[in-house]
Design brief:
With about 250 residues, the protein is α+β, with helices and mostly antiparallel strands. It has nine helices and seven strands. The strands form two sheets. A five-stranded mixed β-sheet has the order 2-4-5-7-6.
Amino acid sequence: MNVSATLVTERLRRSRLDHLTRAVDIITRNRDDLVSFFTQNEQGKQMPAFLDRTAKHLADEQAALIKEMEQVTVRVEHIKTIVQTQQSYAGVLGAIEMVDAAVLLDDAVKLNAAAMERHKIQIERDYEPGLWVSLDKQKLVQVLVNLIKNAKEAVQRNSSGERRVTVRARIVDAARLQIEIIDSGEGIATEHLTRIFSQGFTTKKNGHGFGLHSSANAVKEMGGSLQAHSDGPGSGAAFTLELPYQPPTSRGA
């Protein structure tokens, strides 16, 4: 948003509106004999062409400013959505409640949506209905946000191929629900797959190795599991999260 605001300010600073103001001032000074001014004065003869060029330039300026302000409006709406989503989870840490995992997945996607759009990464959602779980929803959202963020960063670091993150959720059986975060990113070396959830392990230049470790621990506390799969560098990766499923018949028990 700062970039768009800067562009708008710079366009206004370089606007040719002052050229039009000076032209109007010149015409005003010659208003008593405009016919002679436009037909005999060298400056006056050039005035119609100058006004035409200035009008076209100002029209282009206006179109560009409208486009920039539309982008600012979209980003402000993104920020409002993020704030509202974050506020909906405030003060509920540790509370166990029955929720539809699809709602939490959508919220996690919303919290990453602006960054996805900025880096031109497409996100796809594929959920089965009735994904009921009984857990700390704030804890699960934090895990999902982290996994989607990691997927986004992996795609950013992959210079070739499609730019896509897929979020998939389904009921595996009467007791398990599965969530997959699949990316078309840089992939994971085979030797790293067994270490990726270890505390302090990271392949990121500025990483600390806390995110996946804490996510795996949080999932374990919720009675689930978190696994990673990749066919190697350049082939993307998939993180599979399994949680206890609460079918409709057991929710009222």
